[in-house]
Structure formats: C-alpha cells, structure tokens
Amino acid sequence: MTGGRDAGRLLGVDWGERRIGLALSDETRTLAQPLTTLTRRLGKRFPMRELLVLLEQHAVTGVVVGLPLDQEGREGDAATAVRILAADIVRRWGRPVELWDERLTTSRALQAVREMGGSTRGRKGDVDALAAALLLQHYLDAKRGSAT
Q: Is 116 left (phi over 0), alpha (psi -120 to 50) or beta?
C-alpha cells in the first residue's frame, strides 16, 4: 500500500478463532482506534459479509491483517488461516490487503487495560478491538517512519 495510495482509512484486523477485533485509522493514517469485534460461531465461516459492509460504511481504502507468528517468527496453522482470509478479502473486496506481524498485540492490549485500572472480565471483545488498534497503530507508525 505505497505510492499514490497513501490516503484514506485503513482497517486493522486482529484475527482470532472466535472473535475478530477491528480497528480504523483516520483518513490521514496517523491514528488508529478500536472499531468493533466480529464474532464467529465455532465451526462457522468468517463473517465476510459483515466485514464488507464495514469496509464500505467507513470508506476504507486498505486492510491490514495481523499475521500471527510464534516467538521465533515462524508461521503455524493460525498464520495459514490468516493468509487464506487475506486472500479471500482481496478476492471479495478487490482492494489491497497487507499482512503485518501481530506478535504480542493481544497481551499488550490486556496489559494496557490493566494499567488503566480496568478489568478484562467480560470484555474480551473490547480487548480484541484494542489489540487490532495496537496492531494498526504499529503499522501506521512503521510506515510513517519509513516514508521519511
């Protein structure tokens, strides 16, 4: 997502087996904020229709999907599932999707909630959306740093 396409909102996706956290950037691609969480029932498909509606509603121009790697940076079954998801989004939506290393985003989100004195009990969806925001903010910061 470089060149002349550096404008417009990005959607960050923190993929999970049951919950998919989503975050949205501003149009200048400076700040990311939690958007919502999509839920997938066990054994059911990814809620692609809901995602496509959100992409349209928020005039998203690109998607950043967190790639779950292990501590050594290797890909496992979850990374394979994310690659399939990213390819499906491209096929159905027809716009850019970029994979981004998401190691530790969920644990950082949990830590941030605790540091603010909050409880994560019953707030797993909020934590997933916050994890997506951390992932997207890391992406935005890295891209902005490489552009200078």
A: alpha
Whole-structure pTM value: 0.82
- Rounded Cα distance, 20 and 36, in Å: 9
Best CA proximity match to 21, nearest among 7, 11, 9, 6: 11
Question: pLDDT, tens digit, for every residue of 23-46?
Answer: 999 999 999 999 999 998 877 888
Three-state DSSP class for 7? coil
Whole-angstrom distance, CA of residue 97 vs CA of residue 107? 24
Element containing residue 69 per DSSP (H, E): none
Give the burial class of 94: count Cβ atoms within 10 A of its Cβ; 0-12 exposed, 13-18 middle, 19 or more buried.
exposed
The CATH code belonging to domain 3-147 is 3.30.420.140
- Percent of the chain at pLDDT > 90 equals 53
| Per-residue DSSP letter, 3 | G
Q: How far is CA 128 from the centre of its chain?
A: 9
